[in-house]
Amino acid sequence: MKPVERLPSRYRIDGKLGEGGFGEVYRAYDSNLKQTLAIKILRDSATSEQETLTGEFKTLSLLQHPNLVRVFDYGVLPQNVPYFTMELVNGQNLRDFLRAKTNTFLIPETIRQVLRALTYLHKNRILHGDIKPENIVITENEDHSITAKLLDFGLTTGTGNENKLLSGTLRYLAPEILLNAAPRSPATDLYALGVSLIESILSKEVPPSSEIDEAFFEKIYAELNSEIASIGTKKPSALSSFILDLCRIDPSDRFESPREAARSFEIMAMDLSPRREIRVNSIFVGRTKELEEIDRCLTTADPSKRIIFLSGPHGVGKKSIVGKAAQSAQLK
After folding, report:
1. In terms of CB atoms within 10 Å, which of 1, 227, 246, 277 comes out highest?
2. How many whole angstroms separate alpha carbon 123 and alpha carbon 258?
3. What is the rounded distance in angstroms from the CA atom of residue 288 to the CA atom of residue 189?
């Protein structure tokens, strides 16, 4: 009997979604949760590995973040086969999503959301350990926004854990892991993210880090800058440099943590985002329309959109509008 046929009766298998080096993934309906989800059945494992996985599945099932795929249940089937269930996400992986050039303008928003997910994971002392384009899924929402979610995170790669049961994919492993057998760290997750972005934006594979040096990434910079410039992003060099800073060969040249990377990105994103502009040509009382527009700008949930330019000739009351807007914001 196949492992999938030994799953608890609460699960009704509706088809196979795929398979990889560590197991198979199925689409299933959970009668307990009353929803469709994904079940990943791993390869058989030793008892000690099962204990490690069970502990980590328990931790992962407690995590909730809009940019992480939710883990629901876990267990071990006969013949020492672990399995776990997770949120079923309908979308495209990062590589396929950016293959459509009409989506490339969403690169900054994708980076922002993935860094938020990594910041949350690392705050909970969990490293992803296998970031690659196939483990970043992008869903387009009804309002034309996107949601990026990380899959397959945290299995036997907790902070300080040198267990390499699930060792990740060769091209995305940082040089300190391949060359020096160093343990995973926040910097190794950032390296994998940088390489994933480069591959997805340029539609080309990056060689394993043991085969490249900083000179390679300097060559990549020109290609990256050219591709990003073609999407109309302001200051493409800043975004290209940021991506390369994620995957510098020397880990000390990378950001220390996703939180630091996210902060740096938000500062840089202010120069990348389209800005709203209000043109004031004449003097009149009230300025209701302009004040409402400024208020919407200040209260948006997206920090990168809290930028507005007030332009017009001298003496039309630009400073007065700013003063009224500031007073209104303070009162609220």
Report:
1. 246
2. 10
3. 48
Q: How many CB atoms lie within 10 A of CB 275?
A: 14
Q: Which residues contact 92 (CB under 8 A, 6 or more apart)?
A: 137, 138
Strands (E), 156-295: 276-279
Give the sheet arrangement for strand 23-30, strand by strand: 11-20, 23-30, 35-42, 81-87, 71-77
Amino acid at the residue 123: K
Sequential DSSP letters for 78-143: TTTEEEEEEE---SEEHHHHHHSGGGGGGHHHHHHHHHHHHHHHHHTTB------GGGEEEEE-TT
Give the end-to-end CA distance of the chain in Å, rounded to a whole number.
Answer: 64
- What tens digit of pLDDT does each residue of 71-120 get? 999 888 887 888 999 999 999 999 999 999 888 889 999 999 999 999 99
pTM comes to 0.77
Angle subtended by helix axes 186-202 and 236-246, to nearest 10: 130
Amino acid code (one letter) for 275:
R
Radius of gyration over alpha carbons of the chain, in Å? Answer: 23
Catalytic residues: 130
* Cβ–Cβ under 8 Å, residues 187 and 256: yes
Map residue 175 onto helix, strand or coil: helix
Cβ–Cβ contacts within 10 Å for residue 120, how many? 19
Rounded CA-CA distance 76/40 in Å is: 12
Q: What pLDDT, in 10s, does the model give residues 274-283? A: 555 666 666 5
